[in-house]
Specification:
Elements (H helix, E strand, L loop, with lengths): L1 H11 L12 H5 L5 E2 L6 E2 L6 E6 H7 L4 H5 L5 E3 L9 E3 L7 E5 L2 E2 L21 E6 L3 H4 L6 E6 L12 E10 L4 E13 L2 E11 L3 E6 L3 H9 L7 E4 L4 E14 L2 E16 L42 E17 L5 E19 L2 E19 L5 E18 L7 E16 L2 E16 L4 E19 L2 E12 L3 H5 L1 E4 L4 E4 L7 E13 L3 E25 L2 E27 L2 E16 L4 E2 L7 E9 L3 E10 L15 E10 L8 E8 L23 E9 L1
Length: 704
């Protein structure tokens, strides 16, 4: 898996270029969904030098969920942390947390979602017009923290074009039955004159507690609870899983012949529950043997045992989050010379979230930070093209309240990168190099760490035929430890663990390799990717079996590790009849990851999966059915319970009453048709919070 990451980083560097400021509105709307726009060099998906997925238009509408992780979870190589309906980050090829970068239109989300699985990404996916996923370590472009991959949410908050009409926009409204889920979003771009555009966007979502297809607790946890007389019979509904989220933004751009400059201000607020009832968290350790304090003859009534976990109650934990963000973007195309165009991107955010237990604020996390990037693209000279740039970021992170899990800390990052490509039809070769300097300090501890790291990659893509590509890449990546991995020390009720960092951690390094075979033609597409990564000083938060403050201990340390896997996606036109086109598709992935020091599997690695779909498409109506088969995950890390597999059936129809040329549609979906009990092994809460049960969802969309 790590190998894969390396390869991908290489490709990412050559993936895309933002739309030019002088492009027409029609040009923007007609961009093919396979055009990847998340890196300096623009390429179509077939020609990228890494595994890439794109969600836009109808596909994004059907996939849209309350969280980013759940929205992307059906893509190859992608799972989700599934920390309840309110907080679910993407998991790419088994990587999560610090090894995945979440970008908002090319700049980091500037939140603390990497700190813990219960912390939501500070963006509402319903506001996105397009999402691109680069699986693997897009390290060289986005920093070493992206060694597992990049997810880029693209929106219109800073307009790149002036609408041809006075107003251009979209609106959507939806309702889902599984959680009494109501959502609405809109974005409007107005032309003030021929060179100035203003965008206003807003979104809102409100849900109740989520219905589930069986018991909240897994069969493994129910058996453990029964052993100690703490049986719990929550089923049908997942308590404390409701959420609401609202966001708004205002942006303005000035466009001129050779470029543009724009700025936007946005605000996001959300409140969501952390599912899971109160019980002794030690019972979640698969190898834990109850001691004499948990004799079956004891009275384990929850009301009489309120102080059982010494203040770490797990009832009604909620998170209230707010972020104010300012974004700026500038772009200029030079008429001649070595540099063809320059792109500048900057984001600043003030972030805060409070963890609330039984109605009272226990802990508050605050993060003020910024990130800036300057990318310069070289003018193509014969077969040679390239790009280079610099990146700066700062994070000032504070924790206040009962759970002082981290000291105040500041992280400053500087990165410089270069990508060079030679394109000799039918062969493309890309090489990339990146230098990173990270400074992490915790003044109260008197701790200050400096890390220098260099990453590099080399990739090649060969054109076997007009529709077929064969490619491979190798890379060497390095990642500095984050402040959380260095300094974390404390009880975290939301994750039911006591986490202990290691201030002496070294730079994490990996060798990676990847190979792929791809095809894309009018009536079929195919992609098969194999990846491998070998880590030294892999940073692992490992369950030790120890107990601190009545919580299982997760201790950060370093081991040698290996990831490898396969990803498959294919689609074929099966036939045409009576104005209908019938398409079959299949997506599958498998990831394996091992701690090479002791030979055990790494924790929270997704199970192998296969998704098969059949779709009928016509001018006014599309109909789709799909079956997702997820295997048991029995290759578990230390003290983990296994996770049972499941088979889930989903149905969807899209009706466009005025045809495909009008942006008006009504989407009806029936997800989890048979109301199965489904759990993702990548989730910390898999044993207390399954996925949603049967859900009928209706969404109306209009573009104007």
């Amino acid at each position: 898996m790590k190998t894969v990451a390396s390869l991908i980083g290489l490709s990412a560097l050559g993936l895309s270029a933002p739309a030019m400021a002088n492009a027409t509105d029609a040009d923007r709307k007609s961009q093919a969904p396979d055009l990847v726009v998340t890196a300096p060099l623009m390429r179509e998906r077939l020609d990228t030098l890494q595994a890439t997925s794109v969600l836009s238009a109808d596909a994004l509408g059907r996939a849209m969920k309350a969280t980013l992780g759940d929205t992307l979870a059906s893509l190859p190589g992608v799972s989700a942390t599934s920390f309840g309906p309110g907080a679910s980050r993407p998991v790419l090829r088994g990587f999560q947390g610090e090894r995945i970068r979440i970008l908002i239109d090319g700049i980091g989300s500037i939140d603390v979602s990497n700190t813990s699985a219960d912390h939501a990404v500070s963006d509402d996916p319903t506001a996105a017009t397009r999402i691109e996923v680069l699986r693997g370590p897009a390290t060289l472009l986005y920093g070493a923290a992206a060694m597992g991959g990049v997810v880029n949410q693209i929106d219109d908050r800073i307009p790149l074009t002036v609408p041809a009409d006075v107003i251009d926009g979209h609106a959507s409204m939806g309702y889902g039955t599984a959680a009494n889920d109501f959502s609405a979003a809109t974005g409007i771009t107005a032309r003030l004159d021929d060179s100035v555009a203003v965008h206003v966007g807003a979104s809102y979502r409100d849900t109740g507690d989520m219905e589930i297809g069986g018991h909240a607790d897994s069969k493994y946890l129910r058996a453990r609870l029964a052993d100690v007389g703490e049986e719990h019979d929550e089923h049908g509904t997942l308590d404390n899983s409701a959420l609401w989220v609202k966001s708004g933004s205002v942006g303005v751009s000035k466009l001129f012949d050779n470029g543009m400059i724009g700025i936007a201000v946005s605000r996001l607020e959300t409140r969501y529950g952390i599912p899971g009832h109160s019980f002794d968290p030690r019972l979640t350790l698969a190898d834990y043997v109850p001691d004499e304090d948990h004799d079956e003859d004891e009275d384990h009534d929850h009301e009489e045992d309120e102080d059982h976990d010494h203040g770490h109650s797990h009832e009604d934990i909620q998170i209230k989050l707010k972020q104010t963000r300012i974004d700026a973007k500038a772009q200029y195309r030079f008429s001649d010379g070595f540099i063809e165009d320059a792109r500048f991107r900057f984001g600043w955010a003030k972030y805060e979230h409070s963890e609330i237990a039984d109605g009272e604020v226990e802990t508050t996390f605050r993060n003020n930070g910024y990130e800036g990037r300057l990318e310069l693209t070289q003018r193509q000279r014969g077969a040679w093209r390239g790009a280079f740039g610099v990146q700066l970021a700062r994070r000032d992170f504070k924790v206040r309240g009962a759970e002082l899990v981290l000291p105040d800390n500041i992280t400053n990052q500087f990165g410089a990168f270069a990508l060079q490509a030679l394109e000799f039809d039918p062969l493309t070769i890309e090489g990339a190099l990146r230098y990173d300097r990270d400074k992490v300090s915790a003044r109260d501890l008197g701790a200050r760490r400096h890390f220098d790291s260099v990453s590099g990659s080399l990739a090649a893509n060969y054109k076997l035929a007009d529709a077929w590509r064969l490619g491979a890449s190798v890379s060497r990546t390095a990642r500095a430890p984050a402040a959380e991995e260095l300094f974390f020390d404390g009880a975290h009720a939301a994750t039911r663990s006591y986490e202990i960092g290691d201030p002496d951690l070294k730079v994490e390094k990996a060798w990676g390799a990847e190979a792929w075979l791809r095809a894309r033609a009018e009536r079929y597409s195919f992609g098969l990717t194999a990846y491998w990564s070998r880590f030294s000083n892999y940073i692992l938060a490992e369950a030790t079996g120890e107990i601190a403050e009545d919580l299982p201990v997760l201790r950060y340390g370093q081991v040698d590790a290996r990831y490898y896997g396969l990803e498959l996606e294919a689609s074929v036109e099966l036939g045409r009849a009576a104005g209908w086109t019938f398409v079959g598709d299949v997506t599958g992935d498998i990831t394996r990851a091992k701690n090479l020091d002791d030979g055990t599997p790494l924790p929270r690695i997704p199970a192998k999966r296969l998704l098969v779909g059949l779709e009928g498409q016509s001018e006014t109506l599309d109909a789709r059915g799909e079956v997702e088969l997820v295997d048991d995950q029995k290759k578990v890390g230390a003290y983990e319970f296994p996770t049972d597999g499941y088979t889930m059936v989903n149905l969807a129809t899209t009706w466009r009453p005025w045809g495909r040329n009008r942006e008006v549609s009504l989407v009806a979906q029936l997800n989890n048709l048979f109301d199965v009990d489904a759990r993702r092994h990548a989730s910390f809460l898999k044993d207390v919070a399954p996925l949603a049960g049967r859900d009928f969802r209706l969404t109306a969309r209009i573009g104007f």
